[in-house]
Amino acid sequence: MLANYIKIAWKVLLRHPFYTFITLFGISLTLTVLMLLTSFLDHLIGAHYPETKRDRTLYVERMVMSDSTAHSMMSGPMSFKFLNDYAKTLKTAERAAIFSYFNGSNAYVGSQKIKLNITFSDADFWRVADFDFVEGKPFNEQNIKNGDYVAVITDNFKKQYFSNSDEPVVGKNVEIENINYKVLGVVKGSPITRPFTHADIYFPYTAPKSNYQNTGMRGNFIAMILAKSKGDLKTVQSEFQSQIGRIPLPGMQGDFKYSELEVRSDPYLEHFIMTILNGGPGLKNIFYGVIGFIMLMVMGLPAINLVNLNVGRILERASEIGVRKAFGAPIKTLMWQFIVENVFITFIGGTIALILTYILINIINASGWIAYADLAINLQVFSVSIAVCLVFGLLSGVLPALRMSKLSIIEALKS
Fold first, then answer.
1. Residue 243: CB partners within 8 Å, gap ≥ 6?
2. Which residues pair with residue 147 across a beta bridge?
3. The pLDDT value given to residue 268
4. Same domain, yes or no: 40 and 69
């Protein structure tokens, strides 16, 4: 029976080519936009290179200090010492990486200035993040202990800095702000949309200007805490918060007296939401609500237009409906037929949208608009796309089917 419904739907599509073009154009355009949005969201918050362990990583980015009146506060990254004392010492974690936010610097090749983003990190940074080394290796604990002037650079910076980028550069020097650093390794870069791992050059935290010697609580370092498994995240998070809870209050940070101290350790999605919306209770639900509303508007409005088109298409077949009703076809059977037909048409539009999305994603990745962009149609994006096609087909097919079911046999045969 299902195969017959699909054959009928195909014949209906061939009956009016222009109408079919308009229908499929509307469906495919809508679904292409939705698939691109889904792919970009997956690019932002999914576990991708080099942060492939996001599903078992906690991100520690900000310390918030408030006075007793809650009218004055200080917030920002922490000192290396603070994170070394409270993140590195966790017994339930596999390891913790301490590193700085990327910040600006310059390199010069002749008279040409190269703008750079640089990061200072410990050796565990390379164990928590999974970078692909094109050449060489990362710096290790011994390099840090020795205070070696070494660096790991990206393949893009290599092309900009060295005249012959086809030759190996491990062991060569790069001059950054009048200091020579020996290149230990070359990695494929991380997109700027992954700010925890993005940089052009990575230095040991003992390199000049990292300010790792700061003995206070505030500084310019953040951390990624890696749990042994996804199921251990809550345990690690609880231990970290317990450590923070033992810090004596009130305290002094410079001239500022604080009576409340908050240092969050969140999985990436929660961290992302809190960062975008600047924190607060219930914001995760609000974020999901806003995303859902946008998806509904993008999908709902075209669905309404498609409903109108489908009503017209079904009414054109009123005589067919009348004959089938006269021969005893139940309403449920007729409704099921038209819903299946509409879902079939929607999946054709979805196939077109999938092809368009694949082409557009390749264009975006190759364009350089986002350096090292790796948008893709992976299993998650594909699954969401299939679900969207199904929902879209049902949304635009149920109402016309209900309208059709109300037609009496006499009215249908007169049409």
1. 86, 89, 90
2. none
3. 93
4. no
Is residue 402 a contact partner of residue 339, using CB atoms and an 8 Å limit? no
167/219 Cα distance (integer angstroms): 39
**CA 101/CA 103 separation, integer angstroms:** 6
pLDDT tens digits for range 229-265: 999 999 999 999 999 999 998 888 888 889 999 999 9
Task: Based on the fold, state whether residues 258 and 322 are members of the same structural domain.
Answer: no
Nearest to 385 by CA among 37, 9, 20: 37
Residue 178 gets the label, from left (phi > 0), alpha (psi -120 to 50) or beta, of left
Q: How far apart are CA 362 and CA 46, in angstroms?
A: 19
Could you tell me if 32 and 84 lie in one domain? no
Q: How many CA atoms lie within 13 A of 211 on its CB side?
A: 14
pTM: 0.81
How far is Cα 49 from Cα 380, in angstroms, rounded to an integer? Answer: 16
Supply the pLDDT for residue 338: 73
What are 336-345's pLDDT values in tens digits? 777 777 778 7
Q: Which domain holds residue 201?
A: 62-263
List, for residues 27-36, the tens digit of each pLDDT value. 787 778 878 8
What 8-state DSSP symbol labels residue 165?
Answer: T
- 226 within domain boundaries: yes
Rounded to the nearest 5 degrees, what angle is found at the Cα of 276, between the Cα atoms of 50 and 58? 45
Per DSSP, the chain holds a count of helices (H) and strands (E) of 13, 15
304 CB-contact burial (10 Å; exposed 0-12 / middle 13-18 / buried 19+): exposed
34 close to 225: Cβ distance less than 8 angstroms: no
Helices (H), 134-277: 141-146, 155-161, 233-245, 268-277
Interatomic CA distance for residues 355 and 129, integer angstroms: 32
- Both tokens assigned to 303: 């669905």
How many degrees, rounded to 5, is the angle at CA 89 between CA 145 and CA 80?
Answer: 55
User: Hey, what are 51's tokens?
Assistant: 């942060």
- Any domain includes 274: no
pLDDT less than 50: residues of the chain = 279
Q: What region, left, alpha or beta, does residue 369 occupy, with left being phi > 0 and alpha being psi -120 to 50 degrees? A: alpha
Number of domains forming the structure of the chain: 2
